[in-house]
Structure formats: C-alpha cells, structure tokens
Amino acid sequence: MNAKTAKPPKTTPLDRILQSQGFGTRRYCGDLVAAGMVEVEGELCEDPRAEFVLEGLRLTVDGEDWVCHDKAYLMLHKPTGYECSQRPLHHPSVYTLLPVPLRERGVQAVGRLDQDTTGLLLLSDDGQFIHAQTSPKRKVPKVYEVATAEPVIEAQAAALREGVQLEDEPAPIAALACEIVGERALRLTLAEGKYHQVKRMVAAAGNHVAALHRSRIGGLALDPALAPGEWRWLTPADLAELARKD
Ligand code: URA
What residues does the Pseudouridine synthase RsuA/RluA-like domain cover (predicted)? Predict the structure, then answer.
C-alpha cells in the first residue's frame, strides 16, 4: 500500500472509546469527560465527541493511567488461593486481581487453573482467541513444573510419557514430554487441559502432586518480571508466539 492509497486510521468518539474500555455506559463516560476527569495523551479533553484512534491511545481517567486496546489480551501470574471462576466458592476470584474496567469489559480466563496452582494464566475478551487457545483440536502444549510428594523414579516419568489410564477416559493419556528435573520435581508438557489433569496423571503414575506451577503455554513463557498476582498486556510478539502452529 503506498502513501496515496493508505486509508486514514479509523477514529472513534472519546465517550465511545471509554465505554469500550470498560469505564461504564456511554452516557456515564460522556459525563466523566465533560466533568474534566479525562486526559488524552496528557492533555485535558472535555469534549465527549472528540475523535481519536483507539489502539494505543493513552488516557488518564480520574487520575488513573490507561492504555486503550481494541481487544484485551493479558497474562496473569496466578497466585495460590484464587479460583478461576466469576463466582468462586471458597477463595477469591482471579478477576479481583484485575482493574475494574477489564472486569467490566468481560475479560475471561483462557481455561482454568486449580485454586492451589500458580503460574501463567491468559485472559481475554476476544471469543475467537479464547476458542482457538482452548480448542482440543489445536492441542496447544502447556508446560507444568510439578513438585511431587515422593521422590520421582524413572518408571513414573516413563509411564507419564507412554500414557496413563484416568478414570472416565476411554484411552490412556500420554504427556507430550516429561523430564525429571529434581529429586521431587518433574517438568510435564500436556496437549490437553482436562479437569485436574496433571494431578490425576501424576497420581496414576504412582506419585502425588505437592505443588503445581504452569510456566508456559505454546511458545509463550510466564514473564519472570511478574510477581504472583501481577498481570500485563500481551505484546504483539507474545500474540505471534501463541498464533504459531508448529
Ligand atoms: N492440571 C491440574 O491438575 N491442575 C491445574 O491447575 C492444571 C492442570
């Protein structure tokens, strides 16, 4: 595309941008702007109909900095003691770890981790992305760091690589990879995301999970800069890693 034929980027009124980001109804967002509570790229803007390019727009809303994204793609370092449910039963929800606008715009976890599992959890409000990442057909590999209750023996790792029979499953399930990485530590790569799959597989192999951490989904590793409970936006490079089909 040359400069003459390039279309100007699409612009959107500020009240609509705020609404899309989860700040409330269009009317409420318009009132926020008119009340002088919104800065755009560091400048006060009091006109709810002023138009801007949404993607990457930097706002300050009632003193809080916000970068606008058309779709939300996030990684969270899930801590222990949080449930991946909107209506948790026994522990707080992982959604309480996100800013209110992200919850309001309907961000959802891509699959679930148990309340006592830590590590990489993706979240998004893009239904197609969630479907692609969780579809059993795509077999996105997920890597788990497993602390075991008993010392691991090679026969257990071999059983996990060759396949173990789980209750209610028609055939044995094999890990894509399984290596012993410590006296009581395994690194397990799975293609599926069945209920309590790691715990059930390790139990079927004759050991027991003492602690579980997901370190990687496809080509994307948990960002070591994120402490438990912290989240960040996925970058275009992160999304490219997740889209890779190899
Ligand atoms: N397998 C489990 O048993 N638990 C998790 O949280 C994830 C995978």
Answer: 73-204
